[in-house]
Write a structure and sequence with these properties.
The protein is α+β, with helices and mostly antiparallel strands. The protein has a single domain, classed as 2-Layer Sandwich (Alpha-Beta Plaits), CATH 3.30.70. Helices cover about 30% and strands about 30% of the residues.
Length: about 170
């Protein structure tokens, strides 16, 4: 199955934390593509450092709840501690899409319910797959979300492109 995972970090060595997350992900799934690295203003709770964000496309045979468990394990190994909703974090890994599945359980919702409102997710996601389709209505995400409007209201900028040879983001700015 193809899935998309959102990555975010705003505590400590943010870029290093993101790269550690990629290394850990490679141990449990096949990463097929990695977006550029973006810096964005914090969401929900503004009194914190800016975030680094990216999206990875993966292939996995793990069921969604098992994949979620693997992601939570990675977060824990990198040092994530529970804070508060939208609070600072060493690393955050979210399942955005899982093939064309719809999951609505207390532990997991797929597609991620906030995709349509967050430029820091949409921009790297659409960079990887411009024609990604929302499973509820089979419409392309780019056709149901006004990305330019979100960009006008949310501070996000590309800071690095991914280098597949080194498995790191190379600074662009």
């Amino acid at each position: 199955m193809k899935a998309y995972i959102g990555l975010g970090a705003n505590v400590g060595k943010r870029k290093k934390n993101m790269e550690l997350a990629l290394q850990e992900l490679r141990r449990v799934v096949k990463i097929t593509r990695v977006s550029s690295l973006y810096e964005s203003a914090p969401w929900g709770y503004p009194h914190q450092e800016k975030f680094l964000n990216a999206v990875v496309e993966i292939e996995t045979n793990e069921e969604p709840l098992k994949l979620l468990s693997l992601l939570k394990g990675i977060e824990s190994r990198i040092g994530r501690k529970k804070t508060f909703k939208w609070g600072p974090r060493v690393i955050d890994l979210d399942i955005l899409f899982y093939d064309s599945w719809i999951v609505d359980s207390p532990k997991l919702k797929i597609p991620h319910p906030e995709i349509k409102t967050r430029a820091f997710v949409l921009v790297p996601l659409l960079e990887l797959n411009e024609s990604i389709t929302y499973p509820e209505n089979e419409k392309q995400l780019k056709d149901i979300v006004d990305v330019s409007s979100l960009l006008g209201n949310q501070d996000i900028r590309k800071i690095a492109t991914f280098n597949v040879r080194t498995w790191r983001w190379d600074e662009t700015v």
